[in-house]
Amino acid sequence: MTVRVLLVDDQPLLRTGFKLILEAESDLTVVGEAGDGATAVELTRTMLPDVVLMDIRMPGMDGIEATRRIVREGAAAHDPRVLILTTFDLDEYVIEAVRAGASGFLLKDAPPEDLVSAIRIVAAGDAIVAPSVTRRLLDKFASRLPSMRQTPPPPGLETLTEREREVLKHVARGLSNAEIARELVVSETTVKTHVGNVLAKLGLRDRVQAVVYAYETGMSRPGQND
């Protein structure tokens, strides 16, 4: 199956570079390009991409609002995933993009193979939670974002079993299923089942939202490693 990708960035040279990388892969194709959020929303409606590679800071409608609209308008037959591209100096925007429904984020200076892999993973319905980046971002900005301080914790925590809470804490640390399995001395399949149960019970879209949920509920805090 070919993954249809929409490129969204206000820098034409960057879009050209991304396009060259992606179209060198037999299973990826670029169906459109946009230089601002409003155009991205419109092209998502008409071009029906599987993955929207989204910049955050753009003229007019930014990537956060565009992500929010794309996710909100997504239907069962066409549920596009948004992969955010960011740089360290824009990290504070990433949390809001995730809250808007993005399925993950990637640094703009990531190697080409990481970009290709991230798009495939997101297209398959999973999420990108890079441990080294996720923890650094959340630790740095969780206490500074007004929305994360003022929004009441979402309900549902009491529905989780003791093991499911434990798994959620490990997810919030950025651990993969394999790493969690080693920590808990269980099979990777068992961990995958627990993660699925956590997402279903809490009404979360993916692991990225699970990380944010853990911070909102106080299960994980900036600087906490265990």
TrEMBL record:
Keywords: DNA-binding, Phosphoprotein, Transcription, Transcription regulation. It holds the Pfam family GerE. Residues 4-123 form the Response regulatory domain. The lineage of its organism: Bacteria, Bacillati, Actinomycetota, Actinomycetes, Streptosporangiales. This is Two component transcriptional regulator, LuxR family. It comes from the Bacteria. Residues 153-218 form the HTH luxR-type domain. The modification 4-aspartylphosphate is found at residue 55. SUPFAM superfamilies: C-terminal effector domain of the bipartite response regulators, CheY-like. GO terms for biological process: phosphorelay signal transduction system; regulation of DNA-templated transcription. One of its GO terms (molecular function) is DNA binding. It comes from Thermomonospora curvata (strain ATCC 19995 / DSM 43183 / JCM 3096 / KCTC 9072 / NBRC 15933 / NCIMB 10081 / Henssen B9). PANTHER family: TRANSCRIPTIONAL REGULATORY PROTEIN NARL-RELATED, TWO-COMPONENT RESPONSE REGULATOR.
